[in-house]
Design a protein that fits this description.
Elements lengths: L6 E6 L5 H12 L3 E5 L6 H13 L5 E4 L8 H7 L2 E5 L1 H10 L11 H25 L2 E7 L10 H20 L2 E6 L2 E4 L2
Parallel strand pairs: 1-5, 1-6, 2-3, 2-4, 4-5
Antiparallel strand pairs: 6-7
Helix pairs in contact: 4-6, 5-6
Length: 189
């Protein structure tokens, strides 16, 4: 990987200012920016969030809406862009989990949970590998989910555990990691 190109992970709690910091940071390091939006507008609340995010982005950024097999598009994106902002990994993980919509999460066996997690892990590893090959900057936004109480529902605990392990994986491969607290970035790697 070109030493000038970085993978940067930005994490923090809900509404901590992660996306705002990421958008500012990406504008400082990139000239031709691709924005990968992983959200699916499934209800009015999510539609409003997506609308607000769209309005906050510069119009010259190219937006791609996807959450599965992003790695297959990185080389094509890299031909016209030098920096990619993926917002957000947590929603990508959620969408990948619910690709398996026929699962009863209260009764699913642990082997199937492991298979789902391995699929998500493969998506992330392939994405990071392609970003490194493409020699572009990538900023990944994700939520820190492990600082609260243990969730009551089994689905929530499964999700928290998978997301936490994926965040650790990305942080381990990232060149820089920032934790955002009430809008204030703290560099932790």
């Amino acid at each position: 990987m070109n030493s000038n190109k970085k993978i940067i992970l930005i994490t923090g709690g809900a509404r901590s200012g992660k996306s705002s910091f990421a958008e500012k940071y990406v504008s400082e390091i990139g000239k031709k920016i691709a924005y990968i939006a992983t959200a699916i507008p499934f209800d009015d609340g999510m539609k409003n969030r997506i609308k607000r995010h769209r309005e906050s982005r510069p119009s010259e950024w190219t937006t791609f809406e996807m959450y599965r097999d992003i790695y297959k598009h990185i080389q094509k994106i890299a031909k016209k862009h030098d920096t990619v902002l993926l917002d957000c990994m947590t929603i990508m993980i959620t969408n990948l989990m619910f690709d398996n919509s026929n699962i009863d999460w209260d009764k699913v066996d642990w082997e199937e949970v492991d298979d789902i997690e391995n699929d998500i892990k493969e998506q992330i590893v392939l994405l990071i590998d392609e970003v490194k090959k493409a020699e572009i900057n990538m900023i990944i936004v994700t939520n820190e989910l492990g600082m609260g109480i243990v969730p009551e529902s089994r689905l929530s605990r499964i999700f928290r555990d998978i997301a936490g392990r994926m965040n650790q994986l990305i942080a381990g491969k990232a060149d820089e990691v920032y934790f955002i607290v009430t809008g204030i970035p703290v560099k932790i790697k």
